[in-house]
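Dear all,

This email documents one entry for the complex benchmark we are building for the journal club exercise. For each entry we list the sequence lines for every component of the assembly. Then comes the predicted three-dimensional structure of the complex as a C-alpha cell string, followed by one or two observations. Please use this as the template for your own entries, and keep the labels exactly as they appear.
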Amino acid sequence: MSAYTAKQNILQQVDGSATFQFSTTKIISSITGPIEVARPRNEKPTEAFLSISVRPSTGTPTTREAFLEVKLKKILSCMINMEQYPLSEIQIVVQILESGEREQFTCMELACAVNSLYLALLNAGISLKASFLSSFCASKDDNIIVRPTKEELDTSTANHLSVFSISDGKADELIYSDSIGKTTETELFSALAAISSDVNKINETVREVILQSVVDDYVWKF
Amino acid sequence: MTTTDNSLNLVIPGDSISLENNDISNIALGPNVTLENDSTLQPTTAGLFVSSSTKGASKNLYYVDTASGRYVPQVGDLVVGTIIGQFGEYYRVSINEFSKEVLLNIFAFPNASKKNRPRLQVRELIYARVSSTEKSVDVELSCVDPTTGKDGGFGALSGGYTFNVSCAYARFLLFTPNAPVLKKMVEKLQFEIAIGVNGKVWIKSDSSKATMLCVYIISESQNWKQSEISENVDKLIKKFKSL
C-alpha cells in the first residue's frame, strides 16, 4: 500500500489550493471562485459554472485529460452547493506533477485529483454538501490490492476507483465508481468495501491536515 | 500549535452538529451552515463553529467562521473599492479581482445633486457600504450613512496605499475595539486607515516610507500570535528607521 501526503494553502494568487500525493502520483490543484463568468455563453442562471482544466505532467492536454475533466465535473457538481453561486464561475485547475502510472490507466491520477480538489475547495471556502474522499484498488487472482504500486497495477486484471462521501468521520454514501478491466459482481463489491475502509483511514490524516490549516489561518486570534 | 478539536469547535462538512434545544423557530443561521433536519446542523466548509446566544436577543445564532475564501458581498458590509468606469448614472466599482463588478450610484453621496456631487475618476479608491444585493441584479454600494444621512467616513480615499489581507483578519481588525496590532501602532505611528471586509486595507501616513512601514506591519501581523505583536512591531520600526 502506498503512502500519502496532503497540504493546503500552497498558492497565494488563487482562492484555494492544495496538493495531494499517493506515493508516486502527485497533484496540485487550485480553485478560483465564485468569479464573473469568463465567457457569457457559459453563464447559468440558477447555478455555478464549473470550468475544469486538467494539465498533464508532460506535453499538452489530450483526450485522456479531457476524459478526466468530464469525470471530475460529474463528481464535483454533486458535491458543491451549485445553486448557491448562480451566474458565477468556479475555475478549477488540476496540475499533475507526477503521473506515477502508465498512460492506459487513470485511477491513480483521478483519485489523487479528487482528494486534492476536496482540500482545495475547503481552502477556497466553497460551500460543500459533504466531505468526500477517493481511493483505488487493483484486483488480481481474486486478491484485492488497495492503493497498488505502478507494477502491481500493470499486472492486475482490473482496477477500481470510487469516491465516498464522509459523514461524522466515516465513509457514508458511494458518490462515484469507475472500473477498468475484467471483473465480477462479487469482486466489485469487495473492492468497494476495501476502498471504503481505506477512505476511513485516509480521512483520519486528511482531517488533521484540514483542522491544522484552519488553526494556522487564525494565528492572530490567539 | 496543536489541534484542539473540542475547545475550538473546528468543523468540516459532514460533521453533524446537534442542537441542544430542539426549538428551531428560535435559531438564526449565519454563513456556512445549513439546517439538516429539526435538530442537526451541517457545516458547508471547514472552519470554527460559533454559537452565540446573547442575553436579550431572542434568537440563538449559529455560523461557521472561515478565514480563507473569496469575498461575497452582503448588505451592510463596509468595503474598499476601485472605480473602474462610469456609465449613465452609475460608477462601476471593483471590490475584488475577477469578481463581478458592483455599482455605485453617482447620487449615492450625502447632499448630492445634479450639479453638486463628487466627480470620481477611474482608478480612484472609495470607502463605501453595500446597500443592496438582490438576486440576478448587480450589487449596489452607497456612500451615505443610512442612520444619519451624513457621510459617516465614506467617500473617496485620496493618496495612501491599498493592500490585501485575509477576509477574516479584516473583519477582526474592523470589529474588534482596540485590535491589538492597531493599538500598538497608534502608540508609535501616525496614520489614517480604512478597512474593508472585502479584505482590502487602505493606509495613509505622513511619508511614503511611513506608509510602507504601516502596510508591512499589518500584512505581517496576520502571521503573528497576539503575544508577539509588541515585540515584532518594535523590531520592524527599528528596521525601517535604519533604512
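Observations: DSSP finds five helices and 16 strands in chain B. The longest strand of chain B covers residues 78-87.
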